[in-house]
Amino acid sequence: MTDRRVVVIGGGVIGLSIAFHLAEAGVDTTLLERGVLGSGASRATADVVRSYFAGNPVSSALAVRSLAAYHAFPDRPGTELPLRQVGYLVLFTEQEQVNAFKADLPDQRAAGVDVGLISVEEARERNPLIGDLPLLGAAYSPQAYISDTTAIVTAYARAAEQAGARLRTGCPVASIDTRTGRVTTPDGEIAADAIICAAGAWSASLVRCAGVDLPLTEPIEQELLTTDPLPPGTPDIPVTLHAASGLLVRLRGDRLLIGMGYPGPDRKAWRREVAERLAATYPSLAGLALHTAVTGLRDASPDKTAFIGHQPGTPAFLYATGFSGHGLCNAPAAGELVRDLYLDQDPGFDVTALAMSPRRTG
Fold first, then answer.
1. pLDDT tens digit string along 256-294?
2. Which of 109, 108, 112, 130 is nearest to 121 (CA)?
3. Residue 166: beta bridge partners?
4. How far is CA 346 from each of CA 18, 220, 337, 341, 349, rounded to the nearest angstrom?
5. What are phi and psi of 81, to 5 degrees?
6. In percent, how much of the chain has pLDDT > 70?
């Protein structure tokens, strides 16, 4: 199958997964990355791999499939991924949140997610740091792990190269011509039988060049914060989301890693809001100084579900973008689906739910 030449644009965890799966299938694969591998959205993650995405069973199904692939990854020669199981806890303080969880539960279970509604007492047992919140209950999924995104990027890069893929860094793409299959870079043109866009926050202009009208929003800057060292004896806790505010916390060493939406233009105001919500949710941590842990640009879609699709032809054009912060959890499945779409194989997944459609633009 080496007579087929494919160019993958984007060297984050999505692009590397695609490059690995194609090269493993015998496709002549070249990956182009504008910076260093994993320098886009892949560097601005909380290093959490989970399967439950509330209200989004499609992303959950991708994550369930991906989690199984991550667990199998140590079987790859010379690779092993760190996965420490901690669980995922979602705190409900409003009845509407409980109702929405119950309505969503059948679809989540059908997607293969292990998640259930637990009592207030069990929520506080699982996370003893929770203060006097007006909790009505919580969702708990044991299928959540702390990993290391850099290790995952490195493992996929190594596996892709071992399978025969060429990874070119410091090689931005200036333009693509899907009529001729030519990709223009500062080092010259590359001819391909298929072009695959997995460029994250830089995808919009590339898919437009291919005549695909994806409703990608403008790139969003993500910032994660970290605290000063926690008090001695701080218990281990699950990854915990306060549903009403979006405050997400997890332990990282002797500190807390924190996310809460996106900073927006007034970063100081956002930080004050994070500090206030942290103190209200976890009073024992009130007053801990907050510092920037990492920042990075994310791609986003209107429904927070990835766009994965295929325009057949010679040359072909495929895309895998708009992961909206779910990329680390969806990457293995995304690579498998793009491979199967290109090779016209049964992906074992309803890919129509991921392609561009009027329903998704509504």
1. 999 998 888 899 999 999 999 999 999 999 999 999 999
2. 130
3. 30
4. 16, 34, 9, 8, 8
5. -105, 135
6. 97
The phi, psi pair for 185, rounded to 5°, reads -130, 170
pLDDT, tens only, 197-219: 999 988 988 888 888 888 887 77
141 contacts 87 by C-beta, under 8 angstroms: yes
For helices 327-342 and 149-162, angle between their N-to-C axes, nearest 10 degrees: 20
Question: Is-above-0.70 flag for pTM?
Answer: yes
Average pLDDT of the chain to the nearest whole number? 93
Placement of tokens 């399967």 in the chain = 51
Q: How many CB atoms lie within 10 A of CB 9?
A: 28
DSSP string, 259-317: EES---S-HHHHHHHHHHHHHHH-GGGTT--EEEEEEEEE---TTS--EEEEE-SSSEE
E runs forming strands in 17-126:
28-32, 48-50, 84-85, 88-92, 116-118
Write out the two tokens for 262: 């996106």
Q: Is the peptide bond before 142 cis (omega within 30 degrees of 0)?
A: no
User: How far apart (Å, rounded) are the C-alpha atoms in residues 214 and 211?
Assistant: 9
Predicted pLDDT of residue 43: 82
